[in-house]
Here is the input.
Amino acid sequence: MKNRLPYYVVKIKAISLVLILLFSIQLKSQITSLSVTENSTADEAVQMVHDMLVSGGIQIFNVQFTGYPQSGGVFFGDAGIGFSSGIILTSGRAGLAKGPNTSPGAGNNNGAGGDVDLSVLADDVTYDACVLEFDFIPSTENISLTFVFGSEEYPEGVNANWNDAFGIFLSGPGIEGPFSQGAINLAVLPDTDIPVSVNTVNSDSNAVFFVSNWNPVENNNIQYDGYTVVLTAQAPVEPLLTYHLKIAIADGGDRVYDSGLLIEEGSFTDEGLTKLNPKMAELPFYVIQDQTVNGIEIRLTDLVVDPLEFHLYDASGREISSHRIGSSQQNTFRFTGLKRGVYSIVLDCRHGSYATKVLVN
Here is the structure.
């Protein structure tokens, strides 16, 4: 006859199992949900640039923050936007970016002043400006920054007489633009000079770059009622010369609804972009977006005679996958399981390199 455990021992084990299960669920929730930590001082805002923003061979110095400290901060976890950590700058309070999306108009009047460059972009008076700026020295010929812009002004603020603004302003040797210190704005749609804003990216304008998050709410991890796909600000530069970067966001026309700029951790870099700018002839392949698998199908226009390789790069210029094709092999294949965003495809063969960009939505 088998010995049975006393009832109280069985009960203790059952309770322990339940507690372990509940702890595991809570821990998983903490890991997968979005966590936002606001800055409490301007010094913390400066430090997050050193800790979270830069990678590659870029040297940064003279970092300055202007605005309400709590309008900026750092984030970790699943924001549902295409990357899971980075810094956030807002026109109110950074903590309001965290979901669930329960309000059509969350916002905070933080009392900060406006910004002259953002007032030009908004074509209006700006308020509650949050500004990070610094000098930097690149080690290569290209720099880039990966970001998502979100706002509570969607959808009711589209084409209204109040429009929040943000910009990524680059100034330095050889740059002549309309903004302070001769800066240009790098926060534009791919291969255009259209600045990213509520009015230029929404359900009616440039909709392939837009994610609606209100009526219905598609992503409860973030508060914003709409946001862009992952975009990249990039520019050619001269190595070893000193440039200035200013990243800014502000309320336009009023101090009510918040907007936010989420920048991927380590994405301000001078790595990985040179290869994506070859002098291109007619591309020897074409791309089909396969929405059923969140992927890209590539078909060669000619039979494969020599071995070649395809490389897939994300919006920051980092390689995330590759595919090699040998002679006499199938000339159609897929990159699958991709998140929304802009990708670059590079073909290397003995005739040279060919590149193109494709949007996965």
Summary: Helices lie at 7-32, 42-53, 116-122. Residues 307 and 326 are 4 Å apart (CA to CA).
